[in-house]
Write a structure and sequence with these properties.
globular, 106 residues, 8 strands, three-stranded antiparallel β-sheet
């Protein structure tokens, strides 16, 4: 896909929630949001996992550094059935506030 056509996960800029959206022709549609039971600390490391099936079932999970799941959300969407992935983390002012690494496609 491209910058105007893709899926996106997001963390709330205040660290209190996660979300999943589809961007189609530059227009964003929020598919799901989850309020976390705690605020994610600024400038901290987290692990994420995205499971995407051919049928359009998509699950987004966030873990702390010990491997404990903080929360997850699931959506069903078939807007896109193929493509690669990219990653960016920023707040509404363009400031980076969390760090992720060790990306794997499973």
């Amino acid at each position: 896909q491209d910058q105007d056509n893709h899926y996106a996960t997001k963390s709330q800029s205040n660290g209190s929630g996660i979300g999943f959206e589809v961007i189609e022709n530059g227009s964003r549609t929020q598919l799901e949001t989850v309020s976390l039971g705690r605020v994610l600390p600024v400038s901290s490391w987290f692990k994420t996992r995205i499971e995407w099936s051919e049928s359009g079932d998509i699950t987004y999970r966030v873990y702390d550094t010990s491997g404990s799941e903080i929360d997850s959300l699931s959506v069903q969407d078939t807007t896109y059935s193929s493509g690669g992935f990219g990653f960016g983390v920023y707040d509404n002012n363009g400031n980076h506030f969390n760090y992720y690494d060790n990306w794997r496609i499973v």
